Amino acid sequence: MKIIVAIKQVPERDARIRIDAAGKWIDLQDIEVALNESDAYALEEALQLKEAQGGEVVAISVGPERAGQTIREALAKGADRGIHVEVSDPDALTNLDSLAIARLLASAIRDEQPDLVLTGLQSDDLGFGQTGVILAELLGIPHATLILKTEVTSTGIRVLRELEDGWFQHIDMPTPALLTIQSGTNKLRYATLMGIKRAKMKELRAVTADLASVAPVLVRDRVTLPSKQRTTEILTGTPAEAAQKLVDKLQAEARVL
Amino acid sequence: MALLLALPAASPAFSLGSLAEPAPLLLAEKALLLALILTCAWLFWRRFGVVVARIRASRKDPNFSLAPIAPRVRDFVWEVLCQAKVIRERPLPGLAHAFVFWGFLAFALVTLNHFAVGFGFPFLSSTGIFGRFYFAFAACFAVTCAISIAALFVRRFLIQPVWLARVGHKISWESGLIAGLIFTLMATYLASFLVPDGSPSATILWWAHTLSLLVFLPLVPHTKHLHLILSPLTVFLSRGGFSRIPPLVGDEDFGLVTGRDLTQLVSLQAYSCVECGRCTEHCPAANTGKALNPKEIILGLRSYLNDLGPTSEEPLLGKYISQEAVFQCTTCGACEYQCPVGIEHLPIIIGLRRGATNTGTWEDDYAGKLFNAMERNSNALGLSALDRDKFIQKQAFPIFDGSQDYCLWLGCMGGYDPNGREIVSSFAEVMNYLGTSYGVLRKEKCTGDPARRLGNDLVFQMLAEANLEALKQNKVKKIVTICPHCVRTIQEDWKEFGTPPEVEHHSEFLARHQARLPRNPSQDSVVFHDPCYLDRYRGITEEPRQIAALAGPLVEAEQSHQRSFCCGAGGGLAFLGEEHGERVSQVRTAQLTATGASTIAAACPFCNSMLRDALADSGPNPPQLLDIAQIAAASLPPKSDPTQP
Ligand code: SF4
Ligand code: SF4
Question: From A188, which residue of chain B is nearest by alpha-carbon distance?
Fold first, then answer.
């Protein structure tokens, strides 16, 4: 089974975020980066499928030069090969939308003829949750999102999807297919010294992104930091009065009742 | 024995006090003697040669150097010749062992002469001055040696201490045989003073002595008595220091994975173990029903070497040593501290963990989470660095800018754990009172201690290097911290990647300034719990006691100082979920509360959290638990007091 995992390098959760000079995106200079969380779970799912079924796991990422580190990390955890679709111009990279990224990925993946393509559910920085879905469309294969579990069957793959409100759905799908994986499904393995050393010897192919063919359609106008406001209010009076005030506020102000 | 006692009476012409020589041996007897000696030497070498070959075929130790030689000589004299460690930790049997050992030393010359007599070339004469003196001198040792070996025999076979036994093995008959041989050697020697020179009884005694020696010789390499030959070497060649973990070399070294990774020192140590069980007797894991038994780890290595040899590709963990056991070790170091033959358990246990963790063969949900947290969040608790920032702001800790005397290192516990934060805050209060200038780093990563002890060199190296770089950039010269684990890791383990700044534990700092700390002790007694990483790893036991004594009169727990019993947190175990069997922390807490002290003083944030949890379900009115920093802070005058500088 050949599995391709599309991963993304994102700012670390604790990173100190500043808006860049143009006000269009965050300042990526000297920011600490990490592998997108749900992508880590997608990679883990791929590795477990490979361990059970045999085959190959290929990690692919669109990003600047330093995204190579994140691909190496995937190789260290057990991916067999890496493909780095390199975008060296930082402005061009900032402007890419989900469609453009999916197009870059699709053109790099198409010749690989994978049985399964996995991505994380969404990215921790932009959070559109679209790249995987569009990629499936471009590759002409079926997809399912929010996947918690997979199981290889004689006809393809059976997956468990998370619906709202504690509902779940089982779907039988043919392969090849694309799945976007939900965080927290598996226990993530840790990177090991041996993994890192072996990763140095694994193939990491860099391809230059053909930006001319992927003009973005979505234009980001402005980003702002969330404004912090604390409006703690202490409701006074007898317990009954305070409770009444609370109900009023929940109805009138918060409109949750 | 009856024969020996009857001898003097049967030969009235003896001269008491001089060693009787046998009648000159016939040529045939000499030939027989030679043949026997050669056979026994061959039997000896047939086994000993194999052991030597296995040790030599093991991998060379990286970074091993004989220099500096002085501490090696000192350890040799103290631990081998004086038998100090043997005696100190088990006084009575230790002394008995020492007398047997000293008896052997005294007998070296006598034994050489004994064989020389057989061939007709004695070099010590029982009538010459030196000879008379030396034989009498050796006779004194023979008496103490004979009494001692008899006592040790009684202890092993009648009293049967549990630690001497081996799991799944019967009591060893060879030990009984060897004791019998040693006793016979001494008895025949002494009896020779009571019979006439050249008499038939003298000849019989001489042959009895000879045969005992010749049976003894080949038994040595076949039994744990191999330690007779190897352990002086093991003590002399040991890595020195405490828990000195060797660096990994090259791209294929991940720790102890297969036989090929066993170094010459490890193999030498495996063959030196005398199976005394001191390590296991003091092991907190073995004492609380875990699978871990440090003696069996060393003997497991020995069996591996015997069965497969040092070039085998078979994994070390599995049939011979259990992976579960290896990861139950708290790295408390009691075993390494106790071992009388210089075996260094910690580099071995941590080496085995490295082999499993660095190659990803160790699967543990908690460990996966811990390592991922250390990698992602750079702290062992997996919390956001913003949490630490907020704490620093709230306490208004000054930021280190290179001008202050001390960098106050918070550590993961001090920076993120609520109890650890209280300890740091108290210590900062004391430093403020003393007028010491200090600052904290804006950003600080875990020292890597849990990763180091659990064998994750990737995470450890990443953290050590990043911290060393940050300290260099901040021009930190001196660090003080409330955590003994941080102290040890910074001072010793980081050396693999650079030159760490000077670092000390807050107990050392506080003890140095104690004259300026006000004291208003109460009547209620205080018991101090020694943290492993302070007492055994750093050799510090008095400084924290001096501070604990600010609160009241000190009492001691059943196990204290360097023989202290672990709290159960070390070696990364604090992060690994529930233990099997009894909790180590509960056993220790029971020892501490049994003193009746109303305060338990701790000096490590990990001990503090373990003891706190155990106290919570230890019954009504538990003693209060305080760090020595909190004790020092409590003795300070209230803030508004005008006498405060
Ligand atoms: S270090 Fe402590 S816990 Fe580990 S084996 Fe030795 S005595 Fe037991
Ligand atoms: S390892 Fe040391 S302490 Fe443990 S049984 Fe062997 S000789 Fe004794």
Answer: B368
Pocket flag, ligand 1, residue B562 (CB < 6 Å)? no
**CATH number assigned to the domain with residue range A2-213, chosen from the 4 options 1.10.565.10, 3.40.50.720, 3.40.50.620, 3.40.50.300:** 3.40.50.620
**Pair type for strands A143-152 and A156-162:** antiparallel
> Does the Cβ of B345 fall within 6 Å of ligand 1?
yes
The answer, yes or no, to whether any atom of ligand 2 lies below 6 A from the CB of B276, is yes
Residue B457 burial (10 A CB sphere; 0-12, 13-18, 19+) = buried
More confident residue, B641 or B227: B227
pTM of the complete model:
0.89
Q: What is the mean pLDDT of residues B320-328?
A: 97
Q: Identify from B458, B465, B473 which residue to disrupt to test chain A contact, counting A C-beta atoms within 10 A and taking the largest count.
A: B458
Question: Per-domain residue ranges for chain A?
Answer: 2-213, 230-257
What residues of B are in contact with residue A193 (Cβ under 8 Å)?
248, 254, 358-359, 456-458
Beta strand A81-86 with A168-174: parallel, antiparallel or unpaired?
unpaired
CB of B213 shorter than 6 A to ligand 2: no
CA B419 / ligand 1 centre spacing (Å): 26
Q: What is the mean pLDDT of chain B?
A: 93
Ligand 2: nearest atom to the Cα of B298: 1
B421 within 8 A of B461, measured Cβ to Cβ? no
Most confident of A21-30, A31-40, A138-147: A138-147
| CB neighbourhood size of B516 (10 A) | 11
Of the partner residues A188, A193, A194, the one whose CB lies closest to the CB of residue B372: A188
Our answer on whether the CB atom of B338 is closer than 6 Å to any ligand 2 atom is yes
Identify all chain A residues contacting B376, using CB atoms and an 8 Å cutoff: 12-13, 34
**Residues of B206-233 as b/e, b for ≥16 C-beta within 10 angstroms?**
bbbbbebbbbbbbbbbebbbbbbbbbbb
Q: What ipTM does the predicted assembly reach? A: 0.85
- pLDDT band, very low/low/confident/very high, at B643 (cuts 50, 70, 90): very low
Residue B17 has pLDDT above 70, yes or no: no
Specify the residue for token string 């704490």.
B391
SS3 A231: coil
**CB-CB under 8 Å, A13 with B384:** yes
**Fold (topology level) of B2-236:** Fumarate Reductase Cytochrome B subunit (1.20.950)
> What does the pLDDT look like over A113-165, one tens digit per residue?
999 999 999 999 999 999 999 999 999 999 999 999 999 999 999 999 999 88
With a CB cutoff of 8 Å and minimum separation 6, the contacts of A242 are A235, A236
Does domain B242-358 match CATH 2.30.30.100? no
- Indicate left, alpha or beta for A2 from its phi (over 0: left) and psi (-120 to 50: alpha): beta
